[in-house]
């Protein structure tokens, strides 16, 4: 029978057998999945693990600081932070196609991990080699990336279908058979704090797949502001546990006419995508209170330059996916 204790025990044994005396690195994204995967691997191999947090510049407001503080405080894990925003933005320049963006982001992640690996080896050259990469891949990520199940490829999750072919690492993916609610239970069992375990999902490719159109620094800044406002108001309204997540999307290639003061504006729309779900495989749009939606809309159009319209996505999954790309 399935219990969190049996999952933890089984995975700890499997990870020890797989990694042996070698060393591993784990990419932390700030999300639940990578945090639980890291905590599980740390339990199995302790200081043979180094976590790597890649700041790809596609993060939400305050996210980097949160990983640096919360996760390290909770686990005491060795953490290496890499600022790679220049690199990711350069690689994404001129690219609008969603799958291409996902592949580029997946590839750049791996290149940065390889660099981190080289640095970790250089710091302790006589230690065992760093051969393993830990990922918080879940069952739905595998299915929706068409991972060996014969299912149609819906989108390449950055840590599955987005991996480069010449990958030098062996993968450790202890959550590959689990759904999100199970991952949360395992995280709890491992003693991770509520703020981490109950965090809403956020995709590895970050805001990069929430800008419909080319990803640029200006557009990211704009979306980051709008997203922060939406999150703030949802939290203030006490809705965080009610909704699964609420992607905020910038339609960067669309403009519409508006009016502000006595002047005409010609700005971009923001889409709010609040969803309710059990496992992200299917979802329904959340019936949020009108007052909350109104506050979010007023604040975003007042406070975010170049955004003159806020729209609500009322599509279920299927036929829509949760993210727009
Ligand atoms: P979709 O858009 O496929 O999203 O309905 C399902 C869930 O997965 C998240 N998501 C991702 N998570 N890497 C991730 O770690 C990705 O590339 C990725 N793409 C989507 C999404 O936020 C939702 O929770």
UniProtKB/TrEMBL annotation:
GO molecular function: ATP binding; GMP synthase activity
Swiss-Prot/TrEMBL catalytic activity: XMP + L-glutamine + ATP + H2O = GMP + L-glutamate + AMP + diphosphate + 2 H(+)
Keyword Nucleotide-binding applies: yes
Enzyme Commission number(s) from the entry: 6.3.5.2
Pathway linked to the protein: Purine metabolism; GMP biosynthesis; GMP from XMP (L-Gln route): step 1/1
Stretches that traverse the bilayer: none
Domain named GMPS ATP-PPase: residues: 2-199
Biological role: Catalyzes the synthesis of GMP from XMP.
Subunit and partners: Homodimer.
EC class: ligase
Annotated residues for binding of ATP: 29-35
Keywords from the named record: ATP-binding, Glutamine amidotransferase, GMP biosynthesis, Ligase, Nucleotide-binding, Purine biosynthesis
Species lineage: Bacteria, Bacillati, Actinomycetota, Actinomycetes, Kitasatosporales
Keyword Nucleotide-binding: yes
Signal peptide: none
Assigned GO CC terms: cytosol
Protein name, per record: GMP synthase [glutamine-hydrolyzing]
